[in-house]
Amino acid sequence: MILKGMIELGVKSIEFFSPVVNGNEKDDFLELKEYARTLNPSVRLLAHCRCHPDDIEQAISAGFDGLNLFLGVSEYSQNFSHGMTMTEIIRRSRSLIKSLRKNNPAMYIRFSGEDCFRTKLTDVYKVYDEVGEYVDTFGMPDTVGIATPELVRKRVRALKKRYPTVDLECHFHNDRGLSVINAVTAIQSGASYIDTSVWGMAERSGITSVTALLFNLYQDHPELCESFNLEVCYPLNVLMGSILKYHVPYNEPVSVTNRTHTAGVHQKAVLNNKIVYEAMDLRKFGVTKNQLLLGPLSGWNLISYFLREFKNYDISKDQAREITKLFKKQIGRIGRKQNPEYILDEILENYMLKKFPVEPQVINGRIEHLS
Predict the structure, then answer these.
(1) DSSP characters for 82-123?
(2) pTM for the whole thing?
(3) Class of residue 366 by CB neighbours under 10 A (exposed 0-12, middle 13-18, buried 19+)
(4) 71 vs 49, 58, 233, 285, 336, CA distance in Å?
(5) Which of 24-28, 126-130, 242-246, 279-283 has the lowest mean pLDDT?
(6) Over 70: is that where the pLDDT of 70 sits?
(7) Which residues fall within 8 angstroms of residue 126, CB to CB, at 6 or more apart?
(8) Residue 310 CB-density burial (10 A; 0-12 exposed, 13-18 middle, 19+ buried)
(9) Is 266 assigned a catalytic role?
(10) What's the CA angle centered on 255, arms 253 and 258, to 5 degrees?
């Protein structure tokens, strides 16, 4: 279902693990490939592979449309990971990629120097210069999440200038909480592709969230989002939540949390016009509901709204103000066993409020939803 959601969103390239990981990966890919072709025959299915003959051979055998090859080029990889020297890195990458291109002239090939942003740019050039004529795209992975927008801007522009005929892809981890702004900066500086995932799920703090990136791009560069079905963004996030049995993360921009109001001042204004405290229109991204949370910060406007619209009480403003004062005196009782609505119902037992009849179609047509 996630694959279907991404394709419906408009994602053109989807990356899978290399089949060399285990037998299940290959079997799963073959099944998903067949399904993906029924949804969009032109979607590009890529294998994430080490720059290693076994990875490459098995990925080609499985029928991937392209390979995303990676090899650590930083001094940390040389000393503590694969143990190859820079000379050996250059020899291996050039030999494998040159042979791969010769035997598969139409295959999409990306090559990434892992930990690119902690590697000296001169060392990146040493490797990329040797394989540039054989690849479609160079990757710039911020593997450990150390990049800043200024560093991203400088490096993307530098690589675009040195390799003008090769596309550029960026992969940003969120260790510093900068993955989204780094991704936007990379695109503004000339990058063609950004690695993303639903919710930004990945190693450690994750990578760039696909819906957060689209949401931010749309604010200043809506033309870059024209090929995407933006209304799928929120349903895709909810789908991931239903699979993992979690709520959509509170810091994900494309979520109902971003239209949730708890402060009384906010709630009063939003009831009149959402634009007072909602600058961006999330309806374009599939978020069609608001949450006005009944709680300790709620004012009489929300209490009145809640009792009238959801409990159908015929209540005056003065009564709402009086009930709100009593409610606020008991907010210390709010907990798992006594939620705000329970306490409010208890207070109402001392009032003889009449209810007015409401037709079912009116209830179903409500815009605001409290939870």
Answers:
(1) S---HHHHHHHHHHHHHHHHHH-TTSEEEEEEETGGGS-HHH
(2) 0.78
(3) exposed
(4) 9, 17, 33, 37, 51
(5) 279-283
(6) yes
(7) 86, 90
(8) middle
(9) yes
(10) 65
Q: Please give the structure tokens belonging to residue 159.
A: 């690589």
Determine contact, residues 276/270, Cβ cutoff 8 Å. Answer: yes
What CA–CA distance (Å, rounded) separates 50 from 59? 11
Domains of the chain are 2-231 (3.20.20.70), 256-369 (no CATH)
Return the higher-pLDDT residue of 66 and 286.
66
Report whether pLDDT(184) > 70. Answer: yes
CA neighbours closer than 13 Å in the CB half-sphere of residue 39 = 20
pLDDT one-digit tens code per residue, 110-157? 999 999 999 999 999 999 999 999 999 999 999 999 999 999 999 999
Report d(CA 349, CA 337) in Å as an integer.
Answer: 19
Q: How many CA atoms lie within 13 A of 70 on its CB side?
A: 21
Cα–Cα distance for residue pair 233/230, rounded to 1 Å: 6
Task: For 42-71, give one letter per residue: b (16+ CB within 10 A) or e.
Answer: ebebbbbbbbbeebbebbbebebbbbbbbb
- Structure tokens, 212: 């957060």
Question: Largest alpha-carbon pair distance within the chain?
Answer: 86
Among residues 212, 225, 229, the alpha carbon closest in space to that of 9 is found at 229
What integer pLDDT is reported at residue 92 of this predicted model?
93
Q: Are 180 and 146 a contacting pair, CB within 8 Å?
A: no
Other Cβ atoms closer than 10 A to 244: 10
Helices 86-103 and 53-62 cross at an angle (nearest 10°) of 20
Q: How many CB atoms lie within 10 A of CB 122?
A: 7
Residue 353 pLDDT: 82
Residue with tokens 């090859």: 69
Q: Which of 171, 173, 261, 266 is catalytic?
A: 266
User: Whole-number mean pLDDT of the chain?
Assistant: 85
Contacts of 143 (CB under 8 A, 6+ apart): 114, 115, 116, 117, 118, 171, 173
Residue entry with tokens 């004062």: 325
Residue whose tokens read 């900068």: 178
3-state secondary structure of 339: coil
Query: Which tokens is 69 given?
Result: 């090859």
Token pair of 61 as six digits: 């055998």
